């Protein structure tokens, strides 16, 4: 089962704290001596080492300089930033409305050349029809008990954002489980329209649509839906949060996982056959 994002974030912060503590001890410095070398009160050193306070990039650079470990500063800064920003609570995001979430990601989408998307439960947002998106976002509004249900406006914003698949300069590598085709989150007409659109979108030159058949013998599996933006960030969707992974080692693991999943998928005529089969099952 997915680890709680709050627990994951705390564990990541503790890992940074442990590495900083190790550097201090290896340098033979006490908490007070390290603080004096860095120019702050010793209580700050204690808070950082006990993962009660996240260090800033400047804090880490001073710490590494004081312990003669300048070569480790860059990696530690990246790891710390990842720990402090690795998740954003859904409730914090939706406070400004579901439409705001859709519109806030337009710039990140425009800056991405290669999208890699894996989903085990739903059609990815960039390939959703308005009716399907409306149903999905309506469920989200209900689950999170939003004071204002703006799922209609959010669905329109999602579709507007999705026009990027027709723009030059972007490629979309999409892998979904066959079960996604049968997950009926909308009424029959909306599901039929969505499945029909997958046939159309999957034929676009910039889109590679792979489907992992349910009968396929698994060589790899994953529990979470995730999207990668070039090689710079992975966005992972959990129940309570969206986790943004930027640490190079973790990014590499997600990219390897995606390639394993992609290798199990079928494409072209075989993928279209699975979609047509799902459309027939609706009726």
From TrEMBL:
Listed SUPFAM superfamilies: lambda repressor-like DNA-binding domains (SSF47413)
Domain HTH cro/C1-type residues, every copy: 20-62
Gene3D superfamilies: lambda repressor-like DNA-binding domains
InterPro entries reported for this sequence: Cro/C1-type_HTH, DUF5753, Lambda_DNA-bd_dom_sf
Top-level taxon: Bacteria
Pfam families: DUF5753, HTH_31
SMART domains for the chain: HTH_XRE
Protein name per the record: Helix-turn-helix transcriptional regulator
High-level lineage: Bacteria, Bacillati, Actinomycetota, Actinomycetes, Kitasatosporales
């Amino acid at each position: 089962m997915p680890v709680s994002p709050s627990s994951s974030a705390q564990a990541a912060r503790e890992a940074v704290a442990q590495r900083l503590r190790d550097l201090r001890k290896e340098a033979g410095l006490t908490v007070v001596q390290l603080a004096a070398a860095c120019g702050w009160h010793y209580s700050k050193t204690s808070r950082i080492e006990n993962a009660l306070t996240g260090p800033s990039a400047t804090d880490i650079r001073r710490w590494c300089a004081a312990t003669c470990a300048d070569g480790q500063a860059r990696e530690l800064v990246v790891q710390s930033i990842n720990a402090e920003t690795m998740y954003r609570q859904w409730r914090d995001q939706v406070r400004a409305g579901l439409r705001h979430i859709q519109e806030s990601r337009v710039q990140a989408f425009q800056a991405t050349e290669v999208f890699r998307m894996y989903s085990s439960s739903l059609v990815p947002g960039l390939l959703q029809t308005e009716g399907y998106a409306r149903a999905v976002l309506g469920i989200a509004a209900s689950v999170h008990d939003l004071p204002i249900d703006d799922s209609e406006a959010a669905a329109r914003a999602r579709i507007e954002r999705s026009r990027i698949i027709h723009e030059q300069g972007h490629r979309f590598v999409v892998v979904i489980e066959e079960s996604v085709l049968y997950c009926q989150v909308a009424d029959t007409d909306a599901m039929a329209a969505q499945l029909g659109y997958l046939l159309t979108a999957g034929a676009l030159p910039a889109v590679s649509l792979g489907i992992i058949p349910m009968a396929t013998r698994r060589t790899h599996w994953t529990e979470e839906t995730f999207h990668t933006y070039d090689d710079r960030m992975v966005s992972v969707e959990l129940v309570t949060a969206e986790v943004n992974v930027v640490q190079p080692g973790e990014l590499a693991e997600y990219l390897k996982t995606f390639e394993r999943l992609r290798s199990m998928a079928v494409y072209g005529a075989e993928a279209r056959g699975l979609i047509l089969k799902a459309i027939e099952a609706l009726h």
